[in-house]
Amino acid sequence: MSPPEVPWKKHDRIEAADTKLQEILAEAERLIEDRSPQSHDEVDLLRQEIELLRQSSTECKRAEEALGGHLKIVQLLSASATHLLEPLPENEVFEYTARQLHMIAGNAIVVVSDYDPTTNQTTVRAVAGPEQKLQRELALLGRSLVGLAFTVAEGTLSIVVPGNLARVGGGLYDLSFRQLPETVCREIEQKLDLGEVYVMPFVQGEDYMGSVAIITDRNEGLINRGEIELLVNQAGLALKRNRAEAALKEYADRLKRSNEDLERFAYVSSHDLQEPLRTIVTFTQLLERRYKGQMDKDADEYIGFIVEAGTRMQTLINDLLDFSRVSTRGGAFAIVDTEALLDQTLANLQTKIEDSGAEITRDPLPRVKADPSQLVQVFQNLIGNAIKFRREGVQPRIHLSARRTNGMVQFSVADNGIGIDPQYLGRIFVIFQRLHGRDKYPGTGIGLAITKRIVERHGGRIWAESEPGTGSIFYFTIPA
pLDDT band for position 4 (50/70/90)? Predict the structure, then answer.
């Protein structure tokens, strides 16, 4: 991307000098035509004034040209910073950086390379410079520099200085880590009038990512050093960001594949376990019905253990299937009436509500975009837990409310149950985590893990506040 053209306005001093010079020249012509004796002295004075004005005009023009050149470089750096903020392929970062540096570095040749730590090699990715020099270099070398790879000499990377151009004493020969023929390097330097070589690395933390080499013109030397360093730093930041984003994407992809594999494994394993387990439970129940009382007391007890364990295992497998299906078998999102969904939930829990004598109240609940069946499951799990973990001899009181906050709807389910020790609040949403014995509070320990997964599928989060003996409040958010 080339910087936009700016209409340069001529400096006021130059305009004034040019105007004055024209006036003096006109006056000189008049005096020369006059040819009177006294006019000779006046003409001499006019000549001196003309010379001074010419010098002043020349100096102003040189200053203006220098200022214009500097402003163009500033514009180029600004355009480069903007362009390098865009998500660019890594190779385009190298090529763009080389082109932009060429516009700053005069007649120098710019070589941009990357570094692969797995092979310990640096590879030339882009070259820019005066076309004539590049063509002659191609002819002398027998191939393009782009694509050349060099093994990095031991100890070389320890001397690179991040953020600064450093001179390479051995010229092209040392720049190639002494892997190009030295005679060829010296011939190229001589025939292309190449001067000193400067190198600046791309560094990410302590990791070396590559470098920029500036091969100067022998008659020009290194120019615009500060601007070159600034642009290389900009390119280095772009490479860091690109590589960080690529690493993050790769990690996210691996995590997604891993989750999909785990979900598939959980589903297949649970599904395949169902049939043999169902057979065991069915035939054990047949034994219990047909032979109960015909064997000794221990045999009846053992059969009872098998039936109970098998039934519990079936429940556990079904819950595990529900957990694995939250993401893969979820329904479409739609605008839903949470009041109606809560009514459906209470109908599902009617027997538990009547048996416990629970009192359930609510504030007005808003409409949200959600999977209706899964939102019913969230309400059912939270209200069911509030009923299950009630205090003995105390009527369960459960209250639901909602409020809008930061683009989300925050629901709360408050109860007056046994409460939870705050140190365990982080564990209750982990699969198979139980805080109480199965004999007192039956269940598999998966309900809250499923609830958390459903809420996260909707782009929200869930948490709890509680104290033992005073009840709990469970909060969860759904995008408004």
Answer: very low
Helices (H), 85-181: 90-104, 131-141, 171-175
Residue 327: CB atoms within 10 Å: 14
φ, ψ at 111 (rounded to 5°): -125, 120
Assess contact for 428 and 464: CB atoms under 8 A.
yes
Predicted pLDDT at 86: 80
Judge whether 408 and 460 are in contact, CB under 8 Å.
yes
197 touches 171 (CB < 8 A)? yes
**Residue 26 — φ and ψ, nearest 5°?**
-65, -40
Residue 39 pLDDT level (bands cut at 50, 70, 90): low
Contact by Cβ (8 Å): 60, 11: yes
pLDDT higher than 90, residue 124 = yes
- pLDDT of amino acid 282: 82
Paired tokens of 472 = 């709990």
Q: Which residue, 315, 309, 366, 314, is CA-closest to 341?
A: 366
Residues in the chain: 480
Q: Counting Cβ atoms within 10 Å, is residue 106 exposed (0-12), middle (13-18) or buried (19+)?
A: middle
What does the DSSP assignment read for 289-321? HHHTTTS-HHHHHHHHHHHHHHHHHHHHHHHHH
Query: Phi/psi of residue 465, each to 5°?
Result: -125, 135
Total Cβ atoms within 10 A of residue 9: 8
Whole-prediction pTM value?
Answer: 0.51
